Amino acid sequence: MSTAAAHGLDAHLVVDRGGFRLDLRLRAAPGETVALLGPNGAGKTTALRALAGLEALTEGHIALDGVLLDRPGTGGRWTPPEHRRIGVVFQDYLLFPHLNAADNIAFGPRRRGLGRAEARALAADWLDRVGLGEFAKRRPGQLSGGQAQRVALARALATDPALLLLDEPLAALDARTRLDTRVELHRHLAGLAGPAVLVTHDPVDALMLADRLVVVEDGRAVQEGDGESVTARPRTDYIARLVGLNLYRGSASGRTVRLASGEVLATAEALEGDSFAAFAPSAVALFRTEPDGSPRNTWRAVVAGVHRHGDHLRVQLDGPLRAAADVTPAAAAQLGLEPGQEVWAAVKAAEIRAYPA
């Protein structure tokens, strides 16, 4: 095993289940939080369960701080979940309903051999750290969603895990509680010595909590990098939709990209070969008749739908170039936008980013 792999997480997760196959290479350095981001059914939770020892590997390996935990096959190894130094925070927290908050947190340290008094003292310390010192004797049914989430996090961290796994930890919270709890979770992740792997389908959670994103679709990583690089240069329609960009793939020649549909987009950058072209819905201008003036990309389109998007209206356009456009309510009223209406769309070349595919 390489020196780099001897610290943190080094895993190749291959899981065959029915007609689905997960094949994901995953590394996380000490102190690094990696978010697995992707649509439902992409394989994110399967990956987390495999790391925790709750899902059997078909092939591959899992090593943590240089110690091999899992490698199927002859001469391989499998470490039971309870013997892995891994803390897990599940989506629905899975607190023991018959135990109070303090005993929930003390459970893991007690299982690892800590005495009763020491485990209780540790639980009290962790309750203070997450701001719930006065809730020690409350059972899960007496806690709010945000409080239960913090108890679950404290329970996972009280075992001093070498790896922390979080499966949609904020999904069950209402919007206000989610905002406050996200800030609290970020603080704890920043102070974590070991790596953390966060599973989410929410791009805001991923961008706010993770140092690096791994986008998973159909059981495979399709893009990886920090939040800025992934959102600036999406490589799949899923990512483009998440960050609100129109994305197209084609062949670049100079400052133009020819799409598979035959349309040609003028772009700001000069490239050659297989490329992506992307632009924001806010860069699309709509007109009743063909516009004139400065050189730009123009095409006929048909309004497929109009719905509110923040302070603007998001207009879905069909035609040779399917796209989304953002317009103000005043502009929509002036244009009389409604489904089935024909319009002209225009995007300046300077607004279209082109990058290698």
Automatic annotation (TrEMBL):
List the Gene3D superfamilies.
2.40.50.100, P-loop containing nucleotide triphosphate hydrolases (3.40.50.300)
* CDD domains noted in UniProt: ABC_Carb_Solutes_like
UniProt GO molecular function: ATP binding
| Record Pfam families | ABC_tran, TOBE
Annotated InterPro entries: AAA+_ATPase, ABC_SmlMolc_Importer, ABC_transporter-like_ATP-bd, ABC_transporter-like_CS, ABC_transpr_FbpC, Mo/tungstate-bd_C_term_dom, Mop_domain, P-loop_NTPase
Which SUPFAM superfamilies does this one have?
A: MOP-like, P-loop containing nucleoside triphosphate hydrolases
Superkingdom of origin: Bacteria
What name does UniProt use for this protein? ABC transporter ATP-binding protein
Instruction: Write down the species.
Output: Glycomyces endophyticus
